[in-house]
Write a structure and sequence with these properties.
The protein is of the alpha+beta class and 371 residues long. It is 27% helix and 28% strand. Pfam families: Lipase_GDSL_2.
Amino acid sequence: MITTDTWLQEFSDYHNIYNINESGHQEITIFKPLATKEIRLLINNLYDNVPLKITKLTLNKPGHKPMVVTVNGQSNFEIAPKTTQWTDWLNIDIKANDYLTINIYSPNKTIHSLGSNLSESFTKVKNFSNRNDGFFFGISAVQAQVQKKPIKIAFFGDSLTNQGFFSAPLSKELTYINRIVTANYGISGNRLLRPGSGKSQWVQSFGPAGVDRFDEMLMDFQPDIVIFMEGVNDLLHPGAGSPISELPTSKELIAGINELNLKCSQNNIIFVPMTVTPFRGNINNGIYAWNPKKEVIRQEFNKYIIQSFPYAVDLAPFVSDASQTRLAYEFDSGDHIHTSKCGGKKIARFIERNLIDKGLVAVVKANRQVI
């Protein structure tokens, strides 16, 4: 049997969010792509200074009674500050493409170690309060025992990845076609070259620079394919929340993406970068974030991506209006940087077509035979 992650969502430090668990009860429903008879859950308390107390944790699939999940044989337990903890293995007969529902009961009202996902294609969150912002606590990964090694795809990027509007429907569609599992390593506000900085109340949740957290992703998830979408915040934030001196040149962005590609090459991983989408019209921290200099850098960076990476996906023209500097109306969520839910589904189909046309699944299988 092979142990593999079948669902994973990157957590971050949302120090400015309070009373996320005001009801003391949270329900997460997760799509499970692979059949298995054993699973375990990763409980995440990486960014809190107090223990995460769990009084009850249950798991069930539709039409079945809840099963109690334990840690070291205990159904009532604590996760120490700044740590994660795997639960005990649970015997459960899961079919491919089943849904699992996890109920967490905790007296901790304020929890800062959080994941975030706005799409309901792969993950649905209910916290039994008035919140409906996609934040959730507790479970950041699910592992399963399977008979055959799946193809693993990591989505790595910023909020455009994190929100799940393209990554979640794409993940779900891919699981129907092939034996594939995915992980969402998107962090809202994340930059390729620099950690979070500036005046935003969210700055602490922006996380380390992408070039720095990439190694941890490779080591933990061990993907076969990395779908990379980052760089827009490197351009958007400087002068509109962070110092303008942090604006990178196109050469610096190119050096950063080359570093990630090299790491993938060294680990026999297929690197699939996407071009940086436009953001003209966006207001960040009350300041217009776009200017002509930033646009030149974006265009130069995108040109390099298309010319240099055989599996690159040229997403920017697909989602742009005629000027190629703004998101087209059908993709724009309204803030002129994030895509809408409907737009995300169109992006998912566009990326899927690119992956299929380039035969990436066949390439992964061929690479495994060479090893």
